[in-house]
Design goal:
The complex is a heterotrimer of chains A (170), B (164) and C (409).
Chain A: H1 5-16, E1 19-23, E2 26-30, H2 36-45, E3 51-59, E4 68-76, E5 81-89, E6 95-97, H3 106-117, E7 120-122, H4 158-164
Helix pairs in contact in A: 1-2
Chain B: H1 3-6, H2 17-27, H3 38-47, E1 70-74, H4 82-91, E2 97-101, H5 102-107, E3 128-130, H6 137-152, H7 156-162
Parallel strand pairs in B: 1-2, 2-3
Chain C: H1 18-22, E1 26-30, E2 42-48, E3 51-58, H2 66-71, H3 75-83, H4 90-105, H5 111-139, H6 143-164, E4 173-174, E5 177-178, H7 185-208, H8 212-218, H9 226-231, H10 237-240, H11 248-251, H12 272-296, H13 314-319, H14 321-332, E6 341-348, E7 351-359, E8 365-371, H15 373-379, H16 381-385, H17 390-399, H18 404-408
Antiparallel strand pairs in C: 1-2, 2-3, 4-5, 6-7, 7-8
Helix pairs in contact in C: 3-4, 4-5, 5-6, 5-12, 5-17, 6-7, 7-12
The chains are: A alpha/beta (170), B mainly alpha (164), C mainly alpha (409).
The structure holds iron/sulfur cluster.
Chain lengths: 170, 164, 409
């Protein structure tokens, strides 16, 4: 971990009770869901992390508590630092307060996470799906959503697949 | 096409109407300017200086489906794009043809998953498939020429049955 | 197949102004099939006469499910998907992914491979900017730009074909190095290209930079301030055209970029014209990097000799049993990666291209997230087109250089 990152991490840990994990020189801070907006605001205003590089999530199915991690990847242009903030979310209540007013980019990124994982961002200004059609059922990047793999057609299963495959009208 | 060689000294050529109509169709095919993904870049390259598709009477890409008679589906077609693709196809005037350019458009290619149609032939009827990921511009041109062969074989009888 | 959704204003009520609901302003749909949207982007415009009041982009028409599909493949096989994301920059995507894998499993790359990677990625940057410049010219009715730019791009693709056998989707950069060493003609081919291209950039500038029509259409259009850009996560040339000099090649050097001497072109204006100038300057800087990397290119192996992750060369397989076993194991099972996550980012022609990669101890990635620059660059569009004319929207859209494959993934 970068020397200059240590005071920042300590500050967040004291104010928001975060825990720290490290891997390959990267710092991962775990923050509780209700405190995330405060933590992000502090990091943006006081510690100059003005760029939210990525906002995504990860699904640890079949584990249910916490089933998801919402991941905020922050960069500081001024100080040239990076920091990852992770928020564990339970399956029973997949809700995180929105960060769309802290970082404007979070608006679209949160819509994407909602679309792909079904994690609801409370207070989001525009809670629609972004990538999938509006009438999709389910959330594709969850681990229990099937890949939708289609069997390639070989001679031995030629007829079988031919029957199922839809064809358009002329 | 070498009409000149067939012109006698009377300046007259005899042929069937079918032949003439098909000949003129093949030499002035207007593809729709419609790119979906990576293959569209190769389609652009096929029109640019090095390959120059206009040698085959195809320099006129039309942005509107109502003015075009060839749809080159260049790229992968997602579930969200499918209905749009079908509507564009329906808007094209008859007679119309479709080339599926690239592996994705032909069979789904590397993307065998929930989001992509495993071949646009599930959405629109396809006449010629061009293989490759992406196909080289030469391959696309070959695909177009293959389509010409097909069009040259069309008969009025078929049209009469089809559009009755 | 789902049907085309009939859109009612209700869905967009919170995004358009009150006047749209009473019918005072007009709602206009542009795309997904429109020649100037650079792919299958759909924008909903609220217009007062010809002035844009609100703009609501609708994306997802090219959603490919890349992230999910990569989770179902081993680390080596998943790489082919990255090529096809941002299809103007396949080698850059390879590099970004490969760096993430190397960081996750802690693998070193020999110096020669690094130099080759740098040369190819910079060539790819030029090729990408060439497509951009051609399309930009086309949108502004400078048709000949398209022909010139594609002429030069073909020369770069020839070099890619020389080294990898493929024009676009090369998958040439592999974890631990590159697929194989470059052929002997490579040096000459690149040098010839660089020499030719210096003159060509000047030619483009003569055509466009002082062209009064061009300037009239671009200067002062689509202003973007640094603060707004950072708020929206805009990176790359778009950010640098607003005055910031944030470039990952300088800020967090990877692949030995710190050895090369190059500048980061910036402009303070933040308008469409500035974005054009920055990209043109970047072409020159890329040429500089390529020249230096060629001159400094060390000899030696192009692949790491860590047989746990990198398959042995073909010649070894015939004589060594061990090599054969490694080869077999690597291509059937893949290699395991630790149960943890890394984030690594590179500077693509469009901005910060990041990979969030998570392993689970097995041979397949557990989760991959692609932080793609175009996504954020497009998100800022509603902000910067407000108050402009529809014709300016075309210029702005072209200038922010979006690639739909990059946005929808
Ligand atoms: S066939 Fe290959 S190049 Fe063409 S759209 Fe599909 S992935 Fe892209």
């Amino acid at each position: 971990m970068d020397k200059r990152l240590e005071p920042i991490v300590k500050d967040v840990q004291e104010k928001f009770g975060a825990t720290l994990a490290e891997f390959r020189e990267e710092a991962h801070l775990f923050v509780a869901a209700e405190k995330i907006v405060g933590a992000l605001t502090l990091l943006r205003d006081t510690h100059k992390f003005e760029l939210l590089s990525a906002l995504t999530a990860s699904d640890y199915y079949p584990q249910t508590t916490p089933r998801f991690h919402v991941i905020y990847q922050l960069s500081s242009v001024e100080k040239n630092l990076t920091l990852q903030v992770r928020v564990p979310v339970n399956e029973a209540n997949p809700q995180v307060p929105t960060a769309a007013h802290v970082y404007k980019v979070a608006n679209w990124r949160e819509r994407e996470v909602f679309d792909m994982f079904g994690i609801v961002f409370e207070g989001h200004p525009d809670p629609r799906r972004i990538l999938m059609p509006e009438d999709t059922v389910g959330h594709p990047l969850r681990k229990d959503y099937p890949l939708g793999y289609e069997e390639p057609q070989f001679t031995f299963n030629f007829d079988e697949i031919r029957v199922v495959k839809p064809a358009p009208k002329e | 096409m070498g009409v000149e060689q067939k012109l006698g000294n009377m300046g007259v050529v005899t042929t069937t109407l079918e032949n003439m109509v098909n000949w003129s169709r093949t030499n002035a095919m207007w593809p729709m300017l419609f790119g979906l993904a990576c293959c569209a870049i190769e389609m652009m390259a096929a029109q640019a200086s090095d390959y120059d598709m206009s040698r085959f009477g195809m320099e006129l890409m039309r942005a509107s489906p109502r003015q075009s008679d060839l749809m080159i589906v260049a790229g992968r077609c997602s579930k969200k794009m499918g209905p749009v693709l079908r509507r564009l196809y329906d808007q094209m005037p008859e007679p119309k043809w479709v080339i599926a350019m690239g592996d994705c458009a032909s069979c789904g290619g590397v993307f065998n998953n929930y989001a992509i149609f495993q071949g646009v032939d599930e959405v629109v009827p396809v006449d010629v498939y061009v293989a490759g990921c992406p196909p080289r511009p030469e391959a696309l041109i070959h695909g177009v020429l293959t389509l010409y062969e097909k069009v040259k074989g069309d008969t009025f009888k078929e049209y009469a049955v089809k559009y009755k | 197949m789902s049907q085309i959704e009939e859109v009612s204003v209700d869905q967009f009520k919170h995004l358009v102004s009150e006047r749209a609901l009473t019918g005072e302003t007009m709602l206009l749909n542009m795309g997904p099939q429109h020649p100037s949207t650079h792919g299958v982007l759909r924008v909903l415009l609220e217009l007062d006469g010809e002035t844009i009041i609100n703009c609501v982009p609708d994306i997802g028409y090219l959603h490919t499910g890349v992230e999910k599909n990569m989770e179902a493949k081993t680390y080596q096989k998943a790489e082919v998907m990255t090529d096809r994301l941002d299809y103007m920059n396949p080698l850059g995507n390879n590099l970004s992914y490969v760096l993430a894998v190397e960081k996750l499993v802690d693998l070193d790359v020999p110096a020669r491979a690094q130099a080759i990677r740098v040369i190819l990625v910079e060539l790819q940057r030029i090729a990408s900017h060439m497509v951009w410049l051609g399309a930009f010219g086309l949108d502004l009715a400078a048709m000949s730009m398209f022909l010139y730019c594609f002429r030069e791009r073909e020369r770069i693709l020839d070099i890619f074909e020389l080294v990898s056998g493929q024009r676009m989707m090369t998958t040439y950069i592999r974890p631990g190095g590159v697929w194989r060493d470059v052929p002997v003609e490579f040096d000459k081919a690149v040098r010839e290209f660089v020499q030719m291209f210096h003159k060509r950039v000047d030619e483009y500038e003569r055509l466009l930079t002082r062209n009064p029509i061009f300037i009239d259409r671009l200067v002062g259009i689509g202003y973007l301030s640094v603060e707004t850009a950072l708020q929206y996560g805009v990176t790359g040339p778009n950010l640098r055209a607003s005055g910031s000099d944030w470039d990952l090649r300088k800020a967090r050097p990877y692949m030995g970029y710190e050895q090369y001497d190059f500048n980061i072109p910036t402009r303070p204006e933040g308008d469409t014209y500035a974005r054009y100038i920055v990209r043109i300057e970047e072409l020159r800087e890329s040429l500089k990097i390529i020249e230096q990397a060629l001159n400094k290119m060390p000899l030696g192996p192009v692949n790491s000799d860590n047989r746990k992750f990198v398959p042995p060369p073909r010649a070894e397989i015939g004589v060594s049993m061990e090599a054969l076993i490694h080869h077999f194991k690597l291509w059937t099972e893949g290699f395991p990666a630790p149960k943890n996550s890394v984030y690594s980012a590179v500077e693509s022609p469009r901005g910060e291209l990041g990979m969030y990669l998570e392993g689970d101890g097995g041979p397949k990635p557990y989760r991959i997230h692609l932080r793609t620059p175009s996504f954020d660059n497009l998100a800022v569009l509603p902000e910067i087109v407000k108050g402009h004319l529809v014709a300016d929207l075309v210029a702005i859209l072209a200038s922010i250089d979006i690639v739909l494959g990059d946005i929808d993934r």
